[in-house]
Amino acid sequence: MLDILSGTSASSWMLKDRGPRMIMDNPEAFTTVDIFVKDLGIVLEAGRETKAALPFAALAHQLFLSVSGRGDGQVDDSQVIRAYRAFNGE
Fold it and tell me: Transmembrane ranges (predicted)?
């Protein structure tokens, strides 16, 4: 799937950077899930202060929180995919 998406308009720098690590079980952590939890929390607070709706940031925050809450806060941020795997009973 990664090879297919990488050759389409869905491709991006993030997909090319994080995609290969997403399919690894325990990649080296370049930036952690907990850093994204913190940073997205800051973004959401700024949104609240300015009354800006940030539904996709809120959803992303919840996904990163779910992975962190399962004890995986120090793994590579690409491992947010673990939230989707948990939804599917993996």
Answer: none
